[in-house]
Amino acid sequence: MPLSSTTAVLRHARKHGYAVAAFNVHTLEMLQAVVDAAIESDAPLILQTTVGTVQHLGADYIAAAAEVAASRTRLPIGLHLDHCTDYNVVVRCIRAGYTSVMIDASMHPYEENVERTARVISVAAAVGVNVEAELGKVGGVEDDIVVDARDALLADPEECVSFVARTGVDTLAPAIGTAHGIYKGDPNIDFDRIARIAGSVDVPLVLHGGSGIPPDQVRRAVALGMAKMNIATELRIAFSDAIKRVFEERPGENDPRKYMVPAKEAVKRLALEKIALCGCAGRGGEAV
Ligand SMILES: [Zn+2]
């Protein structure tokens, strides 16, 4: 199949109470590893890259590799641009073949977030590309922030309703207490807020900061309406640790295949786990 828009699979996921795993990949091996895991699990898949990775590899190289992966399977595979603040990069990635983009204007005041998101949607909708936007601030939510300040960083359910209505955004990432990176303690997820937001808007919701959330908390968030879970940091660690282990054992190793193969296997193992946790295993044939 060609690369799929993520809209249909995420709506299916929201409707049926599971989430699609979205993996941030930085190398061809990481991309292949998560695709292998999706195929083995019969799961829909979202490949995603940050703007930094687009600059590092090139949107055209990434899209070409993702298209080859999609062409080899009947599973729906989407290619998503994660946390982009730059309209021009969004357009460049859409032209390269990305089927989904996140415009992150959450650092701007609400009205500007609406305007910037709507501008991207006017371009993306014309070519069937999914648009994700963020409300509240996912990063920087720390446990030691006082309640009122923490509350101000999290997405307001009423604002979510007006944001979706005014922008027409396809998928929404509301800040609900997760953070990027690896948590020092347990994440402080506001499940009540997820429930209120999910009860107010029917678009699929996106769980950012998926690395290291305890499995029972992921299942709870997914059951409440989180239809996409982003996994970035844990995947990078699995990849890098496997390479480090090879060099600890054999410092003189100079054949890239000898360290890339174990790294790829480590990424695949983790991806299999995350796909199972999201509940999207076995859903590959349903969502299209
Ligand atoms: Zn994120």
Automatic annotation (TrEMBL):
GO MF, any single term: aldehyde-lyase activity
InterPro entries: Aldolase_TIM (IPR013785), Class_II_FBP_aldolase (IPR050246), FBA_II (IPR000771)
Co-factor requirement: Zn(2+)
One Pfam family of this chain: F_bP_aldolase
Transmembrane segments: none
Binding site for Zn(2+) 1: H83, H180, H208
Keywords: Metal-binding, Zinc
Cofactor note: Binds 2 Zn(2+) ions per subunit. One is catalytic and the other provides a structural contribution.
Binding site for dihydroxyacetone phosphate: G181, G209, G210, S211, N230, I231, A232, T233
Residue positions of the active site: D82
SUPFAM superfamilies: Aldolase
UniProt-annotated binding residues for Zn(2+) 2: D104, E134
GO process annotations (BP): carbohydrate metabolic process
Name assigned to this protein: Class II fructose-bisphosphate aldolase family protein
Species the sequence originates in: Cohnella rhizosphaerae
